[in-house]
Amino acid sequence: MKLLIHQNKRFLWKEKDMHTNLGTIKESVIKKAKPGSIIKSNLKKEFLVLDSLFIDRVKKIKRGPAIIQPKDIGLILTLTGITKESTVFEAGTGSGFMTSFLSNFCKKVISYERKKEFFELAKKNINYLNLKNVELKNKDVYEKITEKKVDLIVLDLPEPWQAINNAYKTLKPSHFLVCYLPTITQVMNLIQKSKNKFFHETTIELIERPWHVEDKIVRPKSDYIPHTAFLVFLRKI
Q1: What's the CATH number for 2-52?
Q2: What fold, for 58-236?
Q3: At what angle do helices 70-80 and 97-105 cross, to 10 degrees?
């Protein structure tokens, strides 16, 4: 797979001629192009050619519900200390965006999604990315978790406190339960209802501020969303 870039537009190419609103590029031209080279469409539009990486392919998966943003995913990966030997449990799979990143960093991911349409969407995306270490289940985490002794639990759910008892039975002692919550009232409710089983390590709101950099025009972008969610880090007592 190759990544073709024209200004702020990105296209993933796998095979055959590539047809875009910027023109068509022949398969033979793309195949011969080396990373870092420039090729042109029939409309004379220039494209930078790069080899596609995991992040490029993940960004192209089909979306459904709102996703956990990359900035927040990065914080979860670093503060919980998971490794290639870790088994991670996740609930609220959605389109499988978070699932995909977890699979790239740990040994195994078990993910529950109770809504059938999201489960089917995530399954297609996981197959598209060829993720062999993901076990996706159409199950409700509020009802039961059958897995035991996992190294990390990540919940992207509106009422994660309903899964506290199940999470407690599944998670290894001293390990992290991380909940992704849009509102501070959800955070307050979660901490109150989990305090007898989990130690509240920290709650973080991570603000990302992208910039527009073009020649002498350097300024913060005006079309970004500063708040995505609160990340609540709990540790099993």
Answers
A1: 3.10.330.20
A2: Rossmann fold (3.40.50)
A3: 40
